[in-house]
Amino acid sequence: MTDPVLETKDDTSSMAKLVYILYLASIIVGLTGIIGVVIAYIKKNDSPEWLRSHFQFQIRTFWIGFLYIFIGSLLMLVLVGYLVLIFFVVWLIIRSVKGFLLIDKKQAHPNPTSWFF
């Protein structure tokens, strides 16, 4: 028989991985990012400490990414916005893959309040 505490922790880490996957999918299908941030907000408080850092990182990733998209969209009128949006896609991929790999190692995110990677 499985331990319900371990099962809950595995479920929570799976949800954190799912959020990173949803963020990556949002590059193609934008709405999955919103679903991801909702999951992160819901799971943030009932997770182990090391996973809280990931959920905090994911929430910040969403809002900072939203800011990059907003600024990039405004600047598209002067063509600089395309560079901002390309930077956003690369930034999102790096943050999501880095976070996903840290969860696989069962490690807390070292700097969940970072603006970069």
TrEMBL record:
Q: Does the keyword DNA damage apply?
A: no
A Pfam family annotated for this UniProt entry? MamF_MmsF
The record's subcellular locations are: Membrane
Note the topology in the membrane: Multi-pass membrane protein
Q: What is its main location?
A: membrane
Query: Where are its TM segments located?
Result: 20-42, 62-94
Keywords from UniProt, A to Z, are: Membrane, Transmembrane, Transmembrane helix
What is the name of this protein? DUF4870 family protein
Q: Which organism is it from?
A: Glaciecola siphonariae
